[in-house]
Design goal:
The complex is a heterodimer of chains A (about 475) and B (about 300). Chain A is an all-alpha fold. Chain A has two domains: about 240 residues, no CATH class; about 230 residues, no CATH class. Chain A is about 85% helix and about 0% strand. Chain A contains 20 helices and no strands. The radius of gyration of chain A is 27 Å and the shape is flat. In chain B, α3 crosses α4 and α8 packs across α10. With about 300 residues, chain B is an alpha/beta fold. Chain B has ten helices and 14 strands. Chain B has two domains: about 220 residues, P-loop containing nucleotide triphosphate hydrolases (Rossmann fold, 3-Layer(aba) Sandwich); about 60 residues, Alpha-Beta Plaits, CATH 3.30.70. Chain B is about 35% helix and about 30% strand. The longest helix of chain B is centred in the middle third of the chain and has 16 residues. The chains are: A mainly alpha (about 475), B alpha/beta (about 300).
Amino acid sequence: MHSMTRIQAALNPVWLIVQRELRDYLRDWRMLLPSLILTVGFPFLMNGFTFVAVNFVNRYGANLVVERLVPISILIIGFFPLTTSLLAALESFVGEKERGTIEPLLSTPLEDWQLYLGKLIVSTLLPLTSSFLSILIYIVLIAYQRMVMPSILTIVQLLLLTVSHAVLMVSAAIVISTQSTSIKGANLLASFIVIPVAILMQGETFLLFWGNEDVIWLGVLAVLVMAALIVRLGLAHFQREYLLGREIDMLHVSWLARTFWKYFKGETCSVIEWYRILVAESLKKAAYLVLMLALLSVVSIVASYLWAQQELSDHVTLLLPESRMERIERLRGSFLSASGIEEPFYLHPWFLFFHNLRAVLIAAFFGLFSFGVLNVVLYMLNTSVIGVVLGIFNLLGYSPLPIALAGILPHGIFELPALILSCAILLRAGIVLVTPQAQRTIGEVLLDVVADWMRVMIGVVIPLLLIAALVESYLTPYLLLRFVSFP
Amino acid sequence: MIETYDLSKVFDDFWAVNGVSLTVRPGQVLALLGQNGAGKTTTVRLLTALLRPTRGWARVYGYDVATQGSQVRAFIGVLTEQHGLYLRMTAREYLDFFGKAYRLDPQQRVARRDQLLEYFGLTAFADRRIGEYSKGMKQKLALARALIHDPPVLLLDEPTSAMDPESARLVREHIAGLKSSQRTIVICTHNLIEAEMLADTVAIIHRGRILIQGTLDELKESVLGPREYRVQFAHPWSLDGFAPPPGAVLVHHDPLSLRFRVDRPHYVNPQLLQELVACRAPVVAMQEVPRSLEQVYLKVMENVQKSDA
């Protein structure tokens, strides 16, 4: 009971901010009118489009497309009001700063999180109400026109996706709003929200067309986790000082370079010292994540091996014996050519090196936008390929152990640690980003984690990938020919 | 009480406040004077725990601004440089909002809100949107916001700017009342007459550093030198045979008046008068030559510009 009262007392100021903002929003016809027009008008527009599209595809008997078109329309309808309300979220802090109203508010004893949460709730609530209203109007229109109605479960999924889009976009907009010094600057930075969310929407559209409900649930979960992490990031780095400390938006390139170099090089004076102190420290800090990812690799390899045994056996046994022989011969041929007779480009060390480096960089790119989470997913996909390949070999009649020992282990002992390290450092970067650090700005933290990743990439990952490529190109084919007997 | 020691704040490479040490006791008003960009607003923001000091420390009402920001803000009333009002709210809603933010209980909040609206003559307009208010009304409402929780410490940036003379007098009287009820008050202002009327101590800040601080008398003494006194005669009088006593220096004379610079007036002035009377000078009045804070300020700034050059 006592703790409930405490929670209520802590949440009262949040509600106070929400009430005030709501009142302000509802009294501003310049915000209200466009939102209302979009909320009410867009479902009719979309309905007209869907009606024409359905009639068109019906002529060709593409019923599956018709079924999928309505959920996608709902997703788009839910998304549109969010885009206009992004402006309100973007100016939540920086707008108040420009109008001079932020300082009296910041001078009250309200805690940072209460201010932040209040702004976040109101900025999410308004666009969501408008999105849900649009969706409701659209569903009524569909029902009225007796078009194919999505299942209740699909509608729930779509509503959850809309909620996660709202939280994701609004929380990212508020992070931008707290880090900008002008509304103009915040609007310019908004493309960093719209572009990833547009890519995300494309992915979701793909999932909806594909129609696998389990995967859509995973997608909903992933987007919700991302949204929660961005909220956490905003809370962790919200500082009153940052809102008042700077007056104009300036990109200090020299400061960026200086700060990055400071983090990258530290106080070290030689490469050996750099390795001994900084690289070692980076590795030490990520040690527990390395261990966790190594365990995940084992789980992923074993699980994918078992999956291949179960799911692919029919496909492999269905192959005609000639076709099987042809494939094995092709495989053997490639190993023979790699051993000196004729070197195919895909076993050239540089090709292998750049191929692996590209994979690491792509995974890192996605990791940067997802607090390291997508990097882990992509890493596990990579390791699961090992399990699937071993499983297929087993189905083709080869013992997986010699193949693993001769064909994967020699270069794998360099390649896998390289992948694990890059992944672990980025995952740690995600953790550091969502951890409050009162003494540093979000920019400094970002530069620090990028420097940390670059240190490990240059100092360890790239050399390991080079060694792995050389071993895979020159040693692995010989070992495979020597220890694996091909029929 | 406000205490700071070596309080400093750097933005990138720019020291906005550099080594500020101040003490303001309950019942005292400190006027913080300086040009635009001198560091007054940054100092106030440091004292409000909105900015974290780069170096040094500050304690407000016993709380450290670096580590106890929330407590510091609970006991401070701030009038910011811009009035910062929510223009779509009414005055009543606005004061209510801040009353709740300062966690006043409902009865206390309503009483305090109505009392302040009444005091500043805003009751008749309390349910109008603030956007419709005049500049002076907005300023009064902003001051009411700073006072809503009856804080023991007040930081006021240009408290009477944009106000008509009657309103400005009302605000000055209110500040004087707060001072006598043992509030600790810091005023940042360009209005030197107002500063002179209200302040017990004055600090002049330039490029983040306190150039000079002290009571008004101390500043006048140290910047403008010893006090000057003017003696007026009933009819023209000649100086022949008159020698000023030790400690008094004659700085100007004409047939109808003399002006002296006196080091220790309590001791020297009676001797001076005796001497004049002895010399049959037709003295009708003797008074101190008034010296304003403006003279002090301009002299200090002139010295700074000279040393900068």
